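Dear U.,

For the methods section draft, I wanted the exact inputs and outputs in one place so we can describe them consistently. I've listed the two proteins in the order they'll appear in the manuscript figures. Please don't edit the token lines directly; just add comments below if something needs changing.

First protein:
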Amino acid sequence: MKSWRLLSMALVIAFGVLVAGCGGSMFRSAKTINDPLALSGRSAGVNIVLGGDALTRQFSAETPRPPSSPSEALLAYSFGNNVDLAQYEGMETLTVNQGIRLRFTFTPNTSMPGVITLRNVSLRLWLRLADRDSQDVARSAVPIELAYNGTLIIERQTDGSYLSQNVISFSVPTDKADGWQLLNILASGIENTLTVDISFAAETSSANVPANATARLNVGFETGSAYIQW
């Protein structure tokens, strides 16, 4: 009988350690909001400055951060409220997930290879959400920064442009206060506005891009989501 008690106590302790180690996640619930920022299917472009030397072709593109007007941003648009705040009372964490594809257009491009590897890629996108509340007071969420560093393979398409081989996926966690503010803006107020800023730099072999070429970068937004946990 004593051994059974000891075994029961050991199981209770082990279960408690397991739950503590998981941060209580065994009891957490979660919900997903699809495309909360209404980005899916949108795209926008910016001119690329090409530089470098006989060995390396360098890429750089940037919009003002933050833009002084919507026309200076990579992308700016308005959309309606799309969240029922009551469903998310008591939320603990909110994670923004977003995928993008990059498309490059070079002129001229007749002698360029079918596949190009971009090295030392540094890509930053800032998503800035704002609106005005029922008292006509301006509100804004903490900017969501999408950041990518590494290499990028781009492939020639039938129209002569170059498309990133894979979707670049981002997952950005927010703290409770910032996540709740974002949900408040999406749930109420007047005319949600999202502006997107960009900073991009990369390099490749000079042999891949003609010295006299001009270039443009287009960012295409895939379906995004907000993942909310209690």
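Second protein (the one for the lower panel):
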Amino acid sequence: MSFINNLNNTDFIVMLIILLAMLYGYFRGFIREFLSIFSIFFSGYLSVYSYPNISLFIKRFIEMGIITDVISLSVLFFFIYSSFGILIKVIV
């Protein structure tokens, strides 16, 4: 207890600033990670929902059905996930 008795107001202010900075960093990291995980699932959902439209466009150039589906799903997922990544960096 003698340690606390030897602290002055400046020490308490510095400790408060450090504590607030730690809390800010903790929550900023949590929010960023939460949004990143959410964007993976949301990108997957949107890709699965929207890939048939893109697949019809790609079938004009590649006539193999399964390959066009894989390409359209992959390109769509990458585009949506990248867009969310940029948006997360801007927001957080």
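Candidate sentences for the figure legend, describing the second protein: The CA atoms of residues 48 and 71 lie 12 Å apart. DSSP finds three helices and no strands in the chain.

Thanks,
Y.
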